Amino acid sequence: MFGFVKPFIPNLRVKEYEYYRSVYCGLCRSMKRHTGEISRATLSYDMTFFALLRLALSGEDISIRRKRCAAHPMRARPMMCDNASLEYAAYISAILVYYKLQDTRADEHGAKKLGAAVLSPCASAMRRRSMRVYETADSVVGEAMREISSLEKERCPIPDMPADCFGRMLGTLLACGLETREAAIAQEIGLHTGRWVYLADAVCDYPQDKKSGSYNPFLYAFPEEAQMEDFRRTMMRGVLSMETDAIARSVLLIDFEDRLLLRRCIENIIEDGMESALSMAVGKEKTDGEGSV
After folding, report:
1. pTM > 0.90
2. Which CATH homologous superfamily contains domain 9-281?
3. Percentage helix, strand, coil, to 5, in the chain?
4. CA-to-CA distance for 2 and 170, rounded, in angstroms?
């Protein structure tokens, strides 16, 4: 369930793009510091969005410096210095990756299952480092994944049920440690972001899951491909747009003060980046929002 929540680079100004990239690269360095060198291979756009939101909600001071790294040794790049938001995102990323691999081992077959088994020891080490600081977060993810697994075993035909579970989990993680007002905003943003990601992922995976026999709620909601195709063409855009609208309304409640670059990056992801991914998910005109980060 990773890779959907990313910026639409053509609609970002140079300063905005550099700010986004500083968070992306800063999170990478934070992951190396807190969860180990190998964890950097799991760096994702989704967790960069998570870090951006924590920065916005916490209101903490940030520092950006130009640095070189192993991936880009020839030219210094803007990188956000380690802070509480990046550290928290690094730890949460490690926990989510661990449980994602466990889910893959339980539900998939062949190469995917083998790959997850090979990577699991590294993920377990990352998770242990995270649990030393955020054991409660691990419990939140573990409980949610068990609930989703139970729905999968029951072959739940209602996509909203596992999507709600995933969204509530993300909302709880995003809200952890924040003040009451900011925590409430975080809960809403996390809920609807999680629902959007789960539903979009399920739509995209429908053909593959139908062939492999892996659980997908839309397989049981629409067992005939013609039914699913009709839903995908006529209703799915509206369903997912409702989630992005809810995210955008919640973001409006955040007090950004003078942090305009941070605000614009978040708005770009919600209004442009997720819309681009949505177009791909429902089979509309494909646009390239990935860029070179």
Report:
1. yes
2. Farnesyl Diphosphate Synthase (1.10.600.10)
3. 75, 5, 25
4. 13
